[in-house]
Each structure stands twice: as C-alpha cells, then as structure tokens.
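Could you show me some protein's one-letter sequence and the numbers that encode its backbone in two labelled lines?

___
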Amino acid sequence: MDGRDRDTGGRARNARPRDGLGRPLPYGEPGVPRQPEGVVRTPAETVGEAQRLLDAGMPFHAHEVFEDAWKSGPAPEAPLWRGLAQLAVGLTHAARGNAVGGARLLRRGADALDPAPVPEAYGIDVPGLVVWARELARRVEAGEPVDAAAQAPRLAPAAPRA
C-alpha cells in the first residue's frame, strides 16, 4: 500500500476537511461534512436536498447531489442534472472569487438548460434558472462579489425557503 487515501475501488479520495464552498482546510480543522457519493434519490429528493444546500451557502455540495442524479438516473435526464450541477459549480467558483471560471460555468450550465432538456423538469424553474445564471455571470464579470447563500437560486418557484 502506498499510504495514499483511496476508496475501496482504489480511486483517490481526499479526506481533508472542507469548508462550505468545498475548499480544502488544514488537517485537524473542523469542516463541513461531505455529501455521501452515489446516493440514489428521487427527483423530488434531489431537488429538495440541493435546494437545502444552496440555501445554506453550500453550492459545491449541491453540485454533488446533482452529480449523483445525473449518474444514477435515466440517460435522457442526464443533461438536466448535469446542467444544474454546472450552475452549482459556477456559483461555487464565483463565491470563491474566481470570476472567469464562475462566469464560464454559469453560462455553460445555462446553455445546457436552454431549452430545457427534459419537459416539465420536475417542477424546476428551468427558464428562471437560465435567466438567473446569465445575469449572475454578467455581474461576476463586472467584479461584483458573490455570497453563495444570499444569491442562491430558487430551483422551483413554489419551494419554500428553509
């Protein structure tokens, strides 16, 4: 064994604690618990858990929830979940101060979702998210700072804030 942190399949795993935006913290520092990987959720559970994480200012963790949905769900739905994951990663980069990467990923996610890749998209306000992402990308490029919790998107118009 080489002493590196690996999962049971031999893939690299980083056990360093992370903050709410997914940035590594020094070993021994308290961090935000990571999202478990490979969780199969219903679409409603995915949207609910991702919204909870977005509202808490943890878009990096929300992206992991969307990633699980795109990898475990039906193939025709993968573009929806992948596009939502890109929006969450774009918000993550923007909140970390990476304007170029944040704007690029916000636009990539918006482009992936316009037009909506899945009709009716489980009540997700896809057109509203596309507008939100493009507007946030514009503001990020203009140098506006981003607070991930305060500027978190609403995934579904009727979803109550926590």
